[in-house]
Amino acid sequence: MSIREIELLGSEVLRRPGEEVEAFDDELRELVRDMFQTMYHADGIGLAAPQIGVSLRLFVIDVPEDHVERGQEAFRAAVVNPRVVEVAEETEKAPEGCLSIPGLEGVVERPSGVVIEAFDPEGEPMRIEAGGLVARALQHEVDHLDGVLFIDRVGPLKRKMLLKKWKKARAEAEEEAAAL
Ligand code: ZN
């Protein structure tokens, strides 16, 4: 097992639609273990394969109890080749962040519930029905597999503002590094 490097905004692989997973083998399961480890290390609740530079339709998610609104259960899974088969008509607005865009947050409107059909890393079909934060996290991760980031869903004005903030933060980080 190893912690992988997380790709940041600006990396081409984050914008590339992932390929379907075809082999449910030991290599895939090792990748899943690495992804969980990388996600926990970065203190995230979801991580998609493109975020570690692997252009496959696969993500891991772990929404723990203390993140979950009342009446909802914690949810942990590795989700392969997901298909969104149903979304709620009702939408909800809530702030989101992303491990590939650290330090930035924006309010995103998404369907409040979602049904997803997918496979687990053994190749067994699975069906996920979720609401609340789990539904939001699932939709955020599915977006990653299509090359879509949350900043694409915050509205043009807010997006511009976030990108400006991002560029400034990156420039400052580079200056700091150079000063060492
Ligand atoms: Zn993300």
Throw out a few tags for this protein:
single chain, 180 residues, alpha+beta, five-stranded antiparallel beta sheet, two-stranded antiparallel sheet, 7 strands, globular, binds zinc ion
In short:
With 180 residues, the protein is α+β, with helices and mostly antiparallel strands. It is built from three helices and seven strands.
Topology of helices and strands:
Elements: H1 26-41, E1 46-48, E2 58-63, E3 75-87, E4 91-96, E5 106-111, E6 113-119, E7 125-131, H2 132-145, H3 156-179
Antiparallel strand pairs: 1-2, 2-3, 3-6, 4-5, 6-7
The chain binds zinc ion.
Structure write-up:
The mean pLDDT is 94. The strands form 2 sheets. The chain has a 5-stranded antiparallel beta sheet. Strands 4-5 form a two-stranded antiparallel ribbon. The relative contact order is 0.17. It is α+β, with helices and mostly antiparallel strands and 180 residues long. It is built from 3 helices and 7 strands. Zinc ion (ZN) binds next to helix 2. Zinc ion binds next to helix 2.
